[in-house]
Amino acid sequence: MSSIAHDDHHDHKPTGLKRWFFSTNHKDIGTLYLIFALTMFFVGGSMAMIIRAELFQPGLQFVDPQFYNSMVTVHALIMIFGAVMPAGVGLANWMIPLMIGAPDMALPRMNNMSFWILPFAFALLLSTLFMEGGGPAGGWTMYPPLVLQTGNAFPFLIFAIHFLGVSSIMGAINIIATVFNMRAPGMTLMKMPLFVWTWVITSFLLIAALPVLAGGVTMLLTDKYFGTSFFDAAGGGDPVLFQHIFWFFGHPEVYILALPAFGIVSQVIPAFARKPLFGYASMVYATASIAILSFFVWAHHMFTVGLPIKGELFFMYATMLIAVPTGVKVFNWVATMWKGAMTFETPMLFSIAFVILFTIGGFSGLMLGITPVDFQYHDTYFVVAHFHYVLLTGAVFALMSAVYYWLPKWTGYMYDERLGKIHFWLSLISSNVLFFPQHFLGLAGMPRRIPDYNIQFADFNAISSVGGFAYGLTQLLFVYIVIKCALGGKKAKPRVWEGAKGLEWIVPSPAPFHTFETPPKITKEMLDY
Amino acid sequence: MNDDDISKKNRKLAFILALVAISFYLVFVLMHSFQ
User: Fold this and answer.
1) What count of Cα atoms within 13 Å lies in the side-chain half-sphere of residue A493?
2) What is the pLDDT of residue B1?
3) pLDDT in tens, A276-334
4) A478 at interface of B, judged by CB pairs closer than 8 A
């Protein structure tokens, strides 16, 4: 503890705008990432509100179809690359050095650059909405030849994606270097918190998958402007090739979004069940297995393009295989809670909801992974319901859980527990009202990415839209809770939650600007998670 | 190990990982260019 007091004593920090623009401090950069992610969550969320308003009733109400398609496309790009990924990187920045006893990230200046690329990349992307011809409207999957019809927005889209990729790869390199080179003595790999493990594995996914996306979109760019025919059948190319390239990135991307969420839940559940995580080693191996398998299932997104039957069978069975390590993880979370002395503070509520609702999303994913069944469900609202269960009630709920779990450590104050619980229950109810009916719409045949629909789909769409507006409004409460907590409240202790284990809880709350400049002495009790 | 040694080790690892990422990118584009 003497080293911590020492750090606290010398807690000098820069002031003013310089502190944020030139920051090399992992906590400040983490904060920047989290604020950016929350902002983008509302930008992407407002596009979702436009989508749900248009779909509230059949017929064209508010926007023209081209703009509607832009909203669908940009909503997805913003939520994936602007909200969920940066929120995960923000948590990684804040917590990984604290969890492994490192003074900062391994490459602090690169860390600054990774963040500051993001606002410029999204400025490029969002500026397209004000251009002649509008924003990109071919879907976030950018399939040619449709996406090649995009007007002036096209190069902006491609360069924005390149920048986002560079930013994420630099972030991933930083995390790997930090974890491999900067751990405190005694913090062996198999003693690291699960959150750190999931981020190391995610970082390898990012380094392997994002260059493939970058390659694919570069080829789109040269097809449009430089006369190549990678994806043009008339020039000897193949549009289906793009789908293979895109999904070779796209499926690992799903786990880039989900694995850090698994890590968060694996921290929160043991803390509030007051028991060590059940099957720590199996959790690590299951995470690694999911990551490896994610590179062998990409064509389950393309069952209807006319793959050879043997190929379809291979990808179907490979997809089913992912259910095994995922099942191990769900079993371990439930077994951790089993006979635990559980309490239900807001982080725990979000984590339990995650386990249940992510599993529902996983099951609908299994249904979509069955080739003949997918022929019926492909490109319907069933798919929309599936991935929103995985990404919203999955990844976003886990991120909410993480924010409530670590907010007192960041701000030094406890958040308002009563408001936190209200936020949780309203989010839980509204998100299910929003997405559960979409399963029925999809099963009945409503296609995705359309601004108008047959009258038979009217009732479930109206219900879904009401859920959407309620969910959107509820998130304003979240902002209020976070701001209220940042401004003051009940003082937080160093160990905010009595059952929480790990190095982040031995530093004071709020965590001083500099921590672990002298490596901590690690005892067995500290790591009993 | 002193701070300079750790920085050197960090930069070396970062360089290798960046090289891996750039080669994936180039291999992907070039592989499809020469078909």
Assistant:
1) 6
2) 65
3) 999 999 999 999 999 999 999 999 999 999 999 999 999 999 999 999 999 999 999 99
4) no
Question: In the beta sheet, which residues pair with residue A488?
Answer: none
Q: Which residues on neighbouring strands pair with residue A447, listed in sequence order?
A: A380
- State the residue for tokens 């009630």: A393
pLDDT band at residue A82 under the 50/70/90 scheme: very high
Residues of A designated catalytic: 75, 104, 140, 167-168, 251, 253, 255, 266, 300-301, 326, 329, 448
Strand partners, A491: A413
| Structure confidence at residue A2 as a pLDDT band (50, 70, 90) | very low
CATH architecture of A4-9+24-527: Up-down Bundle (1.20)
Number of Cβ within 10 Å of residue A236's Cβ equals: 9
Compute and round to an integer the Cα radius of gyration of chain B: 15
Rounded to the nearest integer, the mean pLDDT of chain B is 87
Judged by CB atoms closer than 8 Å, whether chains meet at A230 and B32 is answered as: yes
Listed by start position, the domains of chain A span 4-9+24-527
For residue A397, which of A457, A367, A363, A355 has the smallest C-alpha distance? A355
Strand partners, A413: A491
Find the helix packing angle between A397-411 and A26-55, rounded to 10°.
140
Say whether residue A78 is in contact with chain B using an 8 A CB cutoff.
Answer: no
Nearest to B24 among A173, A211, A241 (CB): A211
Within 10 Å of residue A344's Cβ, how many Cβ atoms? Answer: 11
What's the pLDDT tens digit per position in A350-363?
Answer: 999 999 999 999 99
Band of residue B31 on the pLDDT scale cut at 50, 70, 90? confident
